[in-house]
Fold:
Amino acid sequence: MGRSRRIEVVLWSIAFPGFGQILNGKLVKGFILVSLEFIVNLQSNLNQVIISSFRGDITQAVAESEYKWLMFYPCLYMFGIWDAYKDAAEITKPYAAVPVVCGAYFGTIGVIYSQNLWGAVWLGLSGMFVGLGIGMAVKSILNTRFNN
Structure:
């Protein structure tokens, strides 16, 4: 699959988990992810949390968050992006998923600790980016150590 197609799949997955899978022709998986996204989004009150966070009202965002559901979102989000890209790029390289898995873990940890800091949106996103960076370093170490 061409590079522009892979980018399109990733961008649609970033916009809405499940859309990348649908573009890849994985309809069942795509509709399951779209359904899960709707359920988690509604149960966690995510849209209102995002609005309050972008307005800078972190206290309101924390009050609106339903953390029992919100903690699922980073893993669902990162899996949707990774899975769509993996299918589009036909990735089979060892340790290729490590950065995304670390991003999901650190994003979830960010959500867990967000009540006392920046709120779930900002600390969750920050955790995802930190996790991606750490994951890339770990992937590089693993590839160097075990593939030479």
About this structure: The chain has a mean pLDDT of 90.
